[in-house]
TrEMBL record:
Keyword entries, A-Z: Acyltransferase, Transferase
Originating organism: Sphingomonas rustica
Designated name of the protein: GNAT family N-acetyltransferase
N-acetyltransferase domain residues: 4-155
CDD domains: NAT_SF
SUPFAM superfamilies, per database record: Acyl-CoA N-acyltransferases (Nat)
């Protein structure tokens, strides 16, 4: 896809990353019927917890910002593990979804892993619409872990 680039995440991306996280989780938290201030606080805590977890669990990962024509529209986190590659997280702003960006990012990861002869692993929530995209890209469901479906693509 033309105009889509990846660049390393920097400290200056923090406000964007927080906004992106909120945009991907706000519906889930709003459905609980909590006051807006409580939702805001919970989302801030969840963002901080997720960020610390990712950094501790995936030491050898690429933390990338997805840009379209120079504007940040998402993030792609890919860990390089002994057993292959792991898509840790793909997140796209709501206004940029449905435009093929996620599929293009997956294709990039699969192409790189294919050149290296490595499989690609990921976890996805059963209700996540991206699950269908992963299946179309050749991932197979390999199990369930912590309520998430585990999936693998073989080079």
């Amino acid at each position: 896809m033309r105009g889509i680039e990846l660049r390393p995440e920097t400290a200056e991306d923090e406000p964007f990353l927080r906004r992106l996280f909120v945009s991907t989780r706000i519906d889930e938290f709003s459905a609980a019927g909590l006051p807006p201030q409580a939702i805001e606080m919970l989302l801030a805590q969840q963002y901080d917890l997720q960020r610390r977890h990712y950094r501790a669990a995936f030491l050898d990962a690429d933390w990338s910002i997805v840009e379209r024509r120079g504007q940040a529209v998402g993030r792609l986190y890919v860990a390089r593990e002994m057993a292959g590659r792991r898509i840790v997280d793909i997140a796209i702003l709501p206004e940029a979804k449905g435009q093929g960006i996620g599929g293009m990012l997956i294709d990039r990861v699969l192409a790189e892993a294919g050149r290296a002869g490595r499989p690609v692993h990921l976890h996805v929530r059963p209700e996540n619409r991206a699950r269908r995209l992963y299946l179309r890209k050749g991932f197979v469901e390999t199990g369930v872990e912590g309520g998430d479906i585990t999936m693998t693509w073989q080079a």
